[in-house]
Write a structure and sequence with these properties.
Number of strands: 0
Number of helices: 14
Number of domains: 1
Shape: globular
Radius of gyration: 19 Å
Structural class: mainly alpha
Strand content: under 5%
Order of helices and strands: HHHHHHHHHHHHHH
Distance between the termini: 31 Å
Length: 318
């Protein structure tokens, strides 16, 4: 208790600033990267390197390697989180602006609530939760609608569908993470998941023929810097800040990243990436973020609800 009382305020502010702004800005970094590097291959490079660094760091500090059973659990989560969630996010950003992708991915808490109802039975479908879910779905509908005259082109439906599948996959993985045997060290668990995810993404990229379309000599310095930013800032530094916060601040406060990241991503995409957003994007974002705010501030019915965040390697900002 004393450690928490005397913890320097600047450390807490810095950690929140990192998960708010670094994770929010990674969406634009992804969009820059996929312009020249095939999406699953780009994701593979990001997470294989970040996972290898984190896994190696933990081994060097005496942390035992996961058991065979823990590796099996980490591999299952890696497929759900890195291949289906991040892989589809990277692919979707070929078709969807980075800020809008962040807004659609903000539906993760919506699907997490459904996962708790279906898989964990730790949540009931109350009137408040039902309304919040409907508002979130309405936000996605606004972004995709071809019939509403709100200005701006509707979001590419295939890209939006990929983002929805990505959000669902993350949410299912979050539910499974509470039930599967994983290393007690959250850093080792996350390093193993990222490393396994990098391997699976590499295999996926090869199966899709992305290696044939990749020529490192033609990749610009801007893209390599974007990849470096995703590895160092997005995966290593921001994740470390997140784990530190989840152990020192309330999960409700830490969970505010879910509705700050999309706003940051929209602003970064607009001012640094030249992405336009009009009434359609604003209205869809408002609906989704209201839904996220209501869901993330609902009182947890069981203490176990906190555990998912500790087992997951990263949060929405990626």
């Amino acid at each position: 208790m004393e450690a928490s009382t005397h913890r320097p305020a600047w450390k807490t502010l810095l950690a929140f600033a990192i998960i708010y702004f670094v994770w929010g800005s990674t969406f634009l970094a992804i969009r820059v990267g996929v312009r020249e590097v095939p999406p699953f291959l780009l994701a593979a490079m990001r997470f294989f390197i970040a996972g290898a660094v984190l896994y190696g760091w933990m081994l060097a500090h005496g942390e035992p390697s996961p058991t065979r059973r823990q590796w099996a659990s980490a591999s299952l989560l890696a497929i759900l989180i890195f291949v289906l969630d991040y892989g589809l996010l990277f692919w979707a950003e070929l078709r969807v602006p980075s800020g809008v992708a962040a807004v659609v991915m903000a539906t993760i808490p919506v699907f997490m609530a459904l996962s708790e109802i279906i898989f964990l039975r730790t949540q009931r479908l109350t009137a408040r939760l039902s309304l919040a879910l409907l508002v979130g779905i309405a936000g996605v509908a606004v972004l995709m609608s071809h019939s509403l005259s709100l200005g701006g082109a509707p979001v590419d439906r295939i890209g939006a569908a990929a983002l929805i599948v990505a959000s669902i996959s993350w949410s299912v993985a979050s539910a499974f993470a509470r039930m599967l045997p994983l290393p007690p060290s959250k850093f080792m668990s996350s390093g193993a998941q990222m490393l396994a995810g990098g391997v699976f993404l590499t295999v996926t990229a090869a199966a899709l023929g992305e290696w044939r379309n990749f020529h490192p000599s033609t990749v610009s310095r801007e893209v390599w810097l974007s990849l470096l930013y995703l590895i160092v800032a997005g995966s290593i530094i921001a994740f470390t800040a997140y784990v530190w916060l989840i152990h020192n601040e309330s999960p409700t406060k830490v969970g505010t990243y879910a509705y700050v990241n999309p706003l940051v991503a929209l602003l970064v995409g607009h001012f640094l990436g030249g992405e336009a957003f009009g009434l359609r994007t604003v209205l869809g974002a408002v609906f989704i973020l209201i839904s996220v705010l209501v869901i993330t501030t609902m009182p947890a019915q069981k203490p176990a609800a906190i555990l998912a965040a500790k087992n997951r390697p990263e949060a929405v900002g990626l």
